[in-house]
């Protein structure tokens, strides 16, 4: 089959391979698992479809967030544009997700508490995600709800093209949904002696729930169009944030079997992801057990909270519906599984008193209520802050953790790709292919 394909067809198939590879690597990043060998360990010679292992070869001028992508891009003839397909958009999502996790993973560590730059970074990341979401809606949204039929065992280029659309239309929105959930749920983290704003809590809850339900819908649609046996087993991690968010809502009224019917439907759809993929691999089964443990934790804490007469009175001001009293379960440092191996709890406190006590000392550095509401309700993509403010805060606050022996690198500016060396690569990704001269 390979001998019968043109170089352009081989390049297209190769791009699908690497697109899947990067998307698969993402699930390791957000779950806290050890990653499979990264792109730094594998190289590819463009435009041919040949791969080989390599060791070392770090590019010192490359921002740490895009080292993996850079190791691929630098193997290519930079004078020619890359093929225009879902790979380019996934590169952008991967890059922005990486920058967001750098911020969210350290937002609530002691040295960063009360930082006046935290809200600025939050709004900047949010604006970047909104732009990606708008691009997704324009290019992929309609296809999600009407995908072509797919024969998974057909190796022809036309069938690979169908797979390409199905794969990207689902995975891109799933990764975006996770990014939004991770960002907003960081607002729900409770830290001792740090204040809480009811308006911010309610806005964050509404947005988390919105994207959690969307994630459940995407999994339901994907089940109907792609046989689970073809899924990567650890794509189940894309269901974790939405599952925990909806789980927290179900415990708002656990004794009423008719309450939250829509949420229960979404929750059951997400659980089916874990149980179905567990048939083919052990990893989803382990994560399903983790979801069960979280459910028990919520149930036990909810019973303790109910024993306090002030519980509902305090939590009512943070609720987004009549039965929303219980604090939601969220991770402190992005990953739900961080520190569990060391006997430390990586989850935020769900004792309602962590909210009650925080109300006594309003945060001096909190973003004003009106501005925070504007960020999350505005229909425009214009950033709230000026260009110079965003650039300055991104340069000084979203700092990656540099491995030993590697010189600190200039950060990639989230909203201004053209100001970065990597911007040239993104521009090439966005251009259509050109016919090479013989």
Automatic annotation (TrEMBL):
Membrane keyword on record: no
GO (cellular component) term, any one: nucleus
InterPro entries (alphabetical): TF_fung
Location in or out of the cell: Nucleus
Molecular-function GO terms, alphabetical: DNA-binding transcription factor activity, RNA polymerase II-specific; metal ion binding
Alphabetically ordered keywords of this record: Metal-binding, Nucleus, Transcription, Transcription regulation
The name this protein goes by in its record: Transcription factor domain-containing protein
Protein source organism: Smittium culicis
